[in-house]
Amino acid sequence: MKRKMLCTTLAIMMASSLIACGSSKSSDDAGTEAAANTQGDMENAVITIWSPSDKESIENWWAEKIDEWNAEHPDMLAAREAIDRSDSYAYDNKIATAVTSNDLPSIFFVDGPQVSYYAANDIIVPITDYFSDEIDDFDPATQAQCTYNGELYAISATQSGVAFYYNKDLLKECGVDTDDLDSRTLDNPITWSEMADIAKKCTTDSYVGTHIIMDHGEGIPYALEPMYLSAGKDYISEDGTTADGYVNSDEAVKTTAYLADLIANGYANVDPITDEFLNGACATELGGSWDVATLEANADFDWGVTYYPVADDTKKAVSPCGDWSAAVSKDCENVEATGEFLKWLMNTENVASYADAIAKPATRASSYDEECMAAYAEGPRALFVEQLQNTAAPRPRTPSYATFSTDYAEAMTNIFSDAASTKSVDESYIKEQLDSVAESFAEDYNTYYAK
Predict the structure, then answer these.
(1) Is 381 a member of any domain?
(2) Domain tally, the chain
(3) Of 302, 337, 359, which one is at a domain's C-terminal end?
(4) Dist CA 200 CA 264 (whole Å)
(5) Of 106, 154, 385, 426, which is the most exposed, with the fewest CB atoms less than 10 Å away?
């Protein structure tokens, strides 16, 4: 049985704040009026696009690309609607309404872990044929993120990541060897115990040692999943059918206890604080790839970034990834024209210019040969590319991901809050909370998707 409707609650669960939405401008009206009355074949196609509004550089990129395509393809005009996300869920709710009214655009953008949901419910259609000749140019994590049941259902221009940032000035004050951190490699990342030791040394009356919570929503499963993988168990089984024995496994309890201990000891704040690292309120952080550009432009201290920490016993290197991806909707009346547009939109040059504009790693290996991506050849940006190409693991591919994500984030918030208030870690309470996550996942998956 498949879910045929998206409700507002699910739309809320889908929300992610991994991409900045600083602009509320609705752009790219070029071609809208001319395209409005043309639907049907390749020669009279209209290609409508929905994506969240973004910062000015991205809005400008979209306007330029829409104009470029329309000038070269007057019989296949494209028009984009940039949807303001200032009220958090406007974009997701708009999609939910369009699903039920069969009024989706030709293309709409979805956050990476939701590709499986949309594919399982026949809301988006396969696009494998349009990328079969060049799919291997896209990094493995992007291919995995956008594939469901062996078919490619979406494609993205950029990826995100998380790594370990450190304020060298504060660490030196606390006696931490920053030269050692600077020298780490992908084969020799810091361990959990080393991360905890640094956090302990660097917790003072003026700042805490580390920052591990991006937000109390999707930021929790996104940023912390690699710790579970490094310890030996993912949140959900590889086939996406069960969380029991995974998110509530002994390995998961151990991992969660490690994180809760950072909170219990006061080494990290239980509530996410905006720009905590940039403002010198924490000495280290598990921070996103998007933080590089912010720190380059605004940091008034010496900082560095090294690879995502690994479990002490396994030393298995894993890192987060995921980003917004373009999908062709079930309501698209010109799939062939839309597929050709999407193939053009995601070509090497366009992916490179988009990645440059948004300051994120590109998904295509060939894009790094473009001049605009020169900044990714060395330094912090190169580190994120290296992680993306070697250790990135997409979030679980399951149509019940939204249910899991919401319940897991709530459980972790409860666990962290308990650790903060009691100044201790209760593993029985952790197991209880994670058991509840596994149970709610099973109810959702077995109700709607199990055969």
Answers:
(1) no
(2) 2
(3) 359
(4) 12
(5) 426
Dihedral sign for Cα 81, 84, 88, 90, please: negative
Q: What angle do CA 327, 115, 148 make, to 5 degrees?
A: 105
Q: How far apart are CA 33 and CA 263, in angstroms?
A: 55
- Amino acid code (one letter) for 11: A
Cα separation, 106 vs 49, in Å, equals: 6
Inter-residue contact 373 to 362 (CB < 8 Å)? yes
433: its two tokens? 């909370």
Within a domain: 371? no
Taking only the tens place, the pLDDT of each residue in 133-144 is: 999 999 999 999
Is residue 322 within 8 A of residue 223, CB to CB? The reply is: no
Q: For residue 225, give the H/E element and its range.
A: helix 219-231
Instruction: List, for residues 393-425, the tens digit of each pLDDT value.
Output: 999 999 999 999 999 999 999 999 999 999 999
Residue-wise burial string across 247-268, b where 16 or more C-beta atoms lie within 10 A, e elsewhere: bbbebbbbbbbbbbbbbbbebb
Q: Are residues 424 and 301 in the same domain?
A: yes
Say what the alpha-carbon torsion angle 87, 217, 392, 183 is, to the nearest 10 degrees.
100
Q: Which residue segment(s) compose the domain that 132 sits in?
A: 38-155+324-359
Listed in sequence order, the residues at least 6 apart from 298 whose beta carbon sits closer than 8 Å to its beta carbon are: 278
**pTM, two decimal places:** 0.90
Are 312 and 342 in the same domain?
A: no
Q: Which residues of the chain have pLDDT under 70?
A: 1-44, 86-88
- State the DSSP code for 423: S
